[in-house]
Structure formats: C-alpha cells, structure tokens
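Re: beginner question about structure tokens

> Can someone show what the tokenized structure looks like for a real chain? I only ever see the sequence side.

Sure, here's an example I had lying around. Input first:
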Amino acid sequence: RVGVPWLRSTCGRCRWCRAGAENLCERSRYTGWDADGGYAEYAVAPAAYTYRIPDSLEPLQAAPLLCAGIIGYRALRRAALPPGGRLGLYGFGASAHLTAQIAIRQGAEVHVVTRGESARRLALDLGAASAVEPGRAVPPLDSAIVFAPAGEVVRDALADLGAAGTCAVAGIHLSDIPPLDYQRHLFRERTLTSVTSNTRADGVELFRLAGRLGIHAEVTPYAMSEADRALADLAADRVRGVAVLDMTR
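And the corresponding structure tokens:
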C-alpha cells in the first residue's frame, strides 16, 4: 500500500531543496512526464518520494489525493486564505472538489464559478455557499484559486477579490492573460501567484488532513482498458469529481 505521486525526485542539494521548496528544484523529475508510470499496473519509484497509504483509506480514495489532491492543497496554501475567510474556486474538477472540502471543513465560505451544470450541483452538494456560471457575481473574496486553464478567468478572479486578496493559479498550463486594469485587478494590495507541483511535505499534511477532516473523493472508476474513454470523458466534462483507473476491474 504505497502511492507514487507526481513529484518523483529532486537533486536535494540546491538552495530550493535546502530551503524546503523542493518543488522549485531545477532538476526535479515527475512520474508520467520524465519517467514511465502514469498509465501502468506497476511502477518503480524512489522510496523517499512515495507515500505509505493509511490502512483506513481505500485505494480508490487514495489515488486522487496523490495528484489532484496534492496540487489543490498546495494551491489552497498559496492562496493565503485567512481563517473563516471567503474562497472562490474557478473551475470545479478533480482538484477543486477536494480543495473545496478541505476549505469548508476548516471553516471557510466557498463560492464556485464553473461552466458545467453537474459540477455546480456537486459543489453545492459538498457544501459550497454558491455555485454559478462564469460571468455571474460572487461576494468579494479573500482568496481565489483558478483551476481552469484559461487566462481570462484569472482576470475575472482578480476582479472578484477584495482588498489584500490573493489569487493562486493552480494549472501547469494557462492561456494568455488578457490585459489587466491596475485599479480593477491589482490595486488595494491584491496578489497574483502561481503553483508549481508540490513538496513531499504537502503530501504528508494532506493525508493527515484527509483522515481528520473526512475528505471523500467523488470517484468515477474506469478499467485500465478504458483509459482512452476516461480521457475523452474528461475532455467533454462528463466526469463527476475525479476519474480513476481501477486496476481490479
């Protein structure tokens, strides 16, 4: 019962590794990108970069935490949400539906902006204060996380922030951000930041929180032979929560 996350290895010697920011190591490597194992029944990985899955956590629940969960958790940390604050989530897929649960269980008021009707229903089912289509108003936010890989959404999220708010962009890729208006999008000490992978400490903290807070992934399982269909369903917004390849099917 060992899980292999996205972060596979780092140099361990650079200033980022020594400072506990190993996700910024220029020699970092990633499973499924630099090494095989993203779609495999078995994978070899350095033991120091794996996690022992708690016995209380079923494999189908653990799998989403090792990628979507870790990125969402780091994005939540980067968003600097104050205790009891108001958080906006833009896009509501695998990462966001786990991040929302953590934030809500820690006392935050969560508002979701996403185009999918089923995703909005899931957000409300999980306890979000509101779930609206893009372009609809949300209350002034303390923090925002942009999961949608669209630059125009970043501009919208910045506009929804109150004074001293922080917007974290969680995606690996993002289309160009349209021109910003300084007064509307950045003034009053708003902050725009990004998220780069994760540290091993993020995973340790997330597993601990998941157990203590009762985080539950909304899983849509697929057999390994159905991986192509899973990807097609993801692209077409037909997956509720997170898609997981189930090796037992």
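Each token stands for a local structural state, so reading them left to right follows the chain. The helical segments are 15-18, 59-78, 94-105, 117-125, 151-160, 182-186, 200-213, 227-235.
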